[in-house]
Structures are given as C-alpha cells and as structure tokens.
Write a structure and sequence with these properties.
The chain contains 10 helices and 13 strands. Helix 4 crosses helix 5 and helix 7 packs parallel to helix 9. The chain has a single domain, classed as 3-Layer(aba) Sandwich (Carbamate kinase). By secondary structure, the protein is an alpha/beta fold. It starts with a helix and ends in a 5-residue tail after the last strand. Strand 3 and strand 4 form a beta hairpin.
C-alpha cells in the first residue's frame, strides 16, 4: 500500500516533532502510573504497551507502577468478601489483603508484563515486598468533617516509608522495564495495600525521575469553566487548591504530583488514559494530552 503525499508528509512531521524530545529525554527515568480505562480497554492496553516499549527502545528508562482497584473489587465480590470504604479508602483486613496481593502481585502484574513483552520489551514484574523495594508503615484515616482528631483504623492500608531504589536500578541497568505492584512491607514483614498514585510519586522522587505521569479517566486538571489547564507551576497549583478549583477525587492525585515536583521530579503530568497512545503524545509532542506541572519555566 502506497501512502498519499499528505499521509507521508503527516508521518514525517510527527517524526520530526518527536526528535527534540527524544534527544532531551534519552537516558532519563520516566515513572508511569497505569490504571483506569487504559488498563481494561483492549485497544488502550495495546497502545500503552507499545508506548512504553518505544520509550525504552529510543533510550529512555520507563518504570511502570499499576493499580487494580476494579479487579480487586470484582474478585472480592466473587469470594463473597464484603468491602467497606472510609472516605474512598478500602478497609483492608487480612482476608482482603490476601486478595489484594493475589490480584495486584499476580493476575494484574503478570498481564502487564506479558503485554509489554509481547510488544517487544523486556519487562519484569515485582511487588514492593521483593527486595524490600517499598518499606511501608500503617496509615490511619481521619473522617472528612471530623474535627475531633480521632483516627480510624482501616486495616492493612499503608503509606510509603522508604523506597529501595537499588532494586529498580539493577533492573534498569539490565535493560528491563520494571512493572511494580503497590504492595509494601512493614518492619515485621506484614503486607500493606498502598495507593498506586502515592507509590508512583514516591518512586519518582527516589529515582530523581525526569517525569511522573499519572494516567486518569479525565482530560486533565480543569478550571471552573471546564477547560484543561497545563503548564502550571507548583505555586499556581497551591493557589488552585486554596481557592477550591481543585477538590474532591482529583485532589489526592494532584497532591501526589505536586509533592513529587516539590521533591525534585522535573515535571508531573496528569494525562487522559482514554486517549490512544496518550503516553507517547505527552512525551513526544508539543501539545500533549493533559496537565503539566513543573518548577521549570514552560516555553
């Protein structure tokens, strides 16, 4: 099949536009949190895998951190294990934790590894328990609107205490793509279920990553008129939180991105995982497909 002149020119323009980005990011670490529609739609899973493998082939170092909330919920329902939530956080007792590890460290993780390998990459899956990668501590919740200061025990839900970057460095040095399930380990060897966005942010900080990319099911951070905002400084994001533009379910994700940039990650991106090849479009094009947060001047 012969391309038309217009089609050939379009391809050439796309490749030319990507060249300066390839130069800029070769040898750089890019942490990608994978979840939402991009994980369950066959077309999107294929495009995501191709994006990650292409990044690796042109000399970047992608590190994938994945979620799996819907898959966990589905298996808990099949096993007749009741799920309870506190302000959106799943209460994780020992039975639920067993399912979390089974789904995140097993089914979901190995599916992503298989997809990346099928696309031509060399991926290795692991959880935060492997090599003591993610040291965690128990997290307590405070119910929204509760001014008493009472802490709610939500079981084996944790927060990141420390990232052992040597495990990831070893894999990257071997030309592998690490695929990390957000299960941490406590000081006594106990398992903790940790929010995947939080894990991705902390790993990006520990690695001194160039970029943190969080795939979502929305177009990006929107202003009060519904327009997607990008090229934001950390000061602007702080102001948007203070004036109530950023609220609700988007707030924890934005806070994670904001903390990462304030801790040395060059830029954080909230991108629309419902768009085919969203990762490549954000890395290799001028316009991107989401919201960019950075401490550097955007040109």
């Amino acid at each position: 099949m012969t391309l038309s002149r217009a089609e050939a020119l379009n391809i050439a323009n796309v490749l030319t536009e990507s060249l300066p980005y390839i130069r800029r990011f070769v040898g750089k670490t890019i942490v990608v949190k994978y979840g939402g529609n991009a994980m369950i739609d066959d077309v999107l899973t294929a495009s995501f895998s191709q994006d990650i493998v292409l990044m690796k082939l042109v000399g970047m170092h992608p590190v994938v951190v994945h979620g799996g909330g819907p898959q966990i919920g589905s298996l808990l329902e099949k096993l007749n294990i009741h799920s309870e939530f506190v302000d959106g956080m799943r209460v994780t007792d020992s039975d639920t934790m067993d399912v979390v590890e089974m789904v995140l460290g097993g089914a979901v993780n190995k599916t992503i590894v298989s997809l990346l390998n099928k696309a031509g990459g060399k991926a290795i899956g692991l959880t935060g328990k492997d090599g003591d990668l993610i040291r965690a501590r128990k997290m307590y919740m405070t119910r929204k609107g509760d001014t008493s200061g009472n802490k709610v025990d939500i079981g084996q839900v944790g927060e990141v205490e420390k990232i052992n970057r040597s495990v990831i460095d070893l894999l990257v040095a071997g030309d592998f793509i690490p695929v990390i399930a957000p299960v941490g380990v406590g000081a006594a060897g106990e398992s903790y279920n940790i929010n995947a966005d939080l894990v991705a942010g902390k790993i990006a900080e520990a690695l001194g990553a160039e970029k943190l990319m969080l795939l979502t099911n929305v177009a990006g951070l929107q202003d009060k008129s519904g327009h997607v905002m990008t090229g934001l400084s950390t000061e602007q994001v702080d102001a948007l939180i203070a004036d109530g533009t950023i609220y609700g379910g988007m707030l924890p994700k934005i806070q994670c991105a904001l903390d990462a940039v304030k801790s040395g990650v060059q830029s954080a991106h909230i991108i629309d995982g419902r768009v085919e090849h969203a990762v490549l479009l954000e890395v290799f094009t001028d316009s991107g497909v989401g919201t960019l947060i950075t401490n550097r001047q955007v040109v």
